[in-house]
Amino acid sequence: MKSDIDSSALAVFLFFFIVVTLIGFIASGWRKPDTMARIDEWGLGGRSFGTWVTWFLVGGDFYTAYTVIAVPALVYTVGAYGFFALPYTIIVYPFVFMAMPILWRRAKEFGYVTAGDVVHGQYGSRGLELAVAATGVIATMPYIALQLVGMTAVLKALGLHGEVPLGVAFAVLALYTYSAGLRAPALIAFVKDIMIYIVVLTAVALVPWKLGGYANVFASADTAFQAKGAGSLLLGENQYVAYATLALGSALAAFMYPHTLTGIFAAKSAATIRKNAVLLPAYTLLLGLLALLGYMGRAAGLHVESPNDVVPVLFKTLFSSWFAGFAYAAIAIGALVPAAVMSIGAANLFSRNFWKAYVNPDVTDKGEAQVAKITSLVVKIGALLVVIFLPTQFALDLQLLGGVWILQTLPALVFGLYTKWFRAPGLLVGWFAGFFLGTYLAWLNGLKPLQLIVIGDTQFTMYIGLLALGVNVICTVLINALLPSKSIVRPSTRSVAKN
Questions:
Q1: Looking at residue 162, what is its pLDDT?
Q2: What pLDDT, on the 0 to 100 scale, is given for residue 387?
Q3: Does the residue 146 lie in any domain?
Q4: Is position 112 within any domain?
Q5: 456 dihedral zone (left: phi>0; alpha: psi -120 to 50; beta)
Q6: Residue 432 vs residues 103, 307, 361, 436, 464: alpha-carbon distances, Å
Q7: Which of 4, 66, 339, 497 gets the highest tally of CB atoms within 10 A of its CB?
């Protein structure tokens, strides 16, 4: 470690980190069931979370280090283009309101824990189930890695360098997640969200005041962008399509991830999900305010080693040490909560859709839960490897890369909720085409999620995930239309729970 440690900020940070750690371990006794040795108890909290718990949990695992670190970093670098995350969080909730209650009913009725369970129950295809489950795990790796990037930026601002502090933080996370399952991040999310709101509301009120008002913030940021020769307060004409496709693609992908579906499946009723689809847009206001911190970083004249450092450095520069420590704790906890839910979601997929399906079909409930617990530890190690081996100049790219993959599970997971026309072979071919095309294009673009499209004299850039999803759907429809019709055994929906 270096000698630039801010002792006051570190003391405040450690206090709140210890408090949250204690809450994480206490959570194992919160709403304690007869046994935790079942995957729906450990991994879904017994499907018992009401409106407020679900609101904090889904908000906690949806608004993550992506929100606090990555979005302001992109705005700091490129300006208005980084605000695509704002319309995406507006578009997503009508989709949640319409589709997720139906999905919840299906999962509740048949005891499904994962997206893979839903797909296998709908289509009776182990191949399609495995494709959906594997995609969920793979797409989760860069998303957890994004949380690690956020943690690293905070620890760096505190003066803690190297891999040991990050390793210690995630070891603590692993221990209470192993012990309490989904109950731990659900309980911690209350603290995390309250802290984040305090930090953001304080920042958007006091930072502009310290910088001469919002008019000066925008004027100074614009001047900084012009001097840099890149970025702008307004979208350029060549950014319209990229902006729109990033927003739409991200919205469609958001609730396909294992961690967001875990929050949905953990709700106690379909009505709870509908209420949350109405209430969760309150977080969109929070996201918009957070994005403004990127402009404030420009207006403050900050020069950082990495764009991911802009928010921690902004607090370090403009606030007292104790409040900076509080802000760092909020950001760190804001990374740990979703990381916990993500590892649980990925672990549920492995236990249900690989271990039970292929390795030990006769595994007991206790054995299934134990496999999930161990897998949740392994997933965190995988995320560390992503951080080590993938470039993270723009942490947002990690989330968008995962989005390219997880979008390809949407047809298999959602189409069957509304029609029985689609069948497993077509969906599997579509998934294969979309997944590998998306991966190939991302690789060609240096793991960037955007692809240049040239049609005659017209050129534009669009989100690779949405492009791959289009190919996916076309292939699915064509293959399904060409297949001879036959009777398909589907799960009965006559007794779907009413809520």
A1: 65
A2: 62
A3: yes
A4: yes
A5: left
A6: 23, 35, 26, 6, 15
A7: 339
Cα–Cα dist 350/356, whole Å: 8
Q: What's the Cα-to-Cα distance from 27 to each of 43, 173, 467, rounded to whole Å?
A: 13, 13, 42
What pLDDT score was predicted for residue 394? 46
- Domain of 240, in residue numbers: 7-393
Q: Which residue has the tokens 């294009």?
A: 441
Is residue 471 domain-resident?
no
Residue 459 tokens read as: 């050129």
Tokens at 22, concatenated: 């204690």
What mean pLDDT is predicted for residues 259-269?
91
Local confidence band at 493 (pLDDT 50, 70, 90 cut-offs): very low
Is the torsion defined by CA of 124, 130, 135, 140 positive or negative? positive
Q: Is the pLDDT of residue 408 over 90?
A: yes
Higher-confidence residue: 248 or 231?
Answer: 248
Helices and strands, counts by H and E, the chain: 22, 2
Indicate the helix (H) or strand (E) that contains 268. none
State residue 384's pLDDT score: 67
Number of structural domains found in the chain: 1
Q: How confident is the model at residue 497 (pLDDT cuts 50, 70, 90)?
A: very low
- Alpha helices by DSSP H, 268-406: 270-279, 282-299, 310-318, 321-350, 365-389, 396-406
Q: List residues bridging with 458 in a β-sheet.
A: 455
Measure the CA dihedral 57/63/66/71, to 10°.
Answer: -170
Quickly tell me which residue has 């997933």 as its tokens.
379
Q: 16 near 235, Cβ under 8 Å?
A: no
- For residue 103, what pLDDT is reported? 94
Of 94, 91, 170, which Cα lies nearest the Cα of 342? 170
More confident residue, 376 or 484: 376
Tens-digit pLDDT profile for residues 428-454: 999 999 999 999 998 888 777 888 888
Average pLDDT, the chain: 84
CATH of the domain at 72: 1.20.1730.10
What are the tokens at 362?
């006769």
Contact 22, 300 (CB under 8 A): no
Kindly state the tokens that stand for 223.
């001047």
- Tokens 């001047």 -> residue: 223
Residue 493 lies in a domain: no
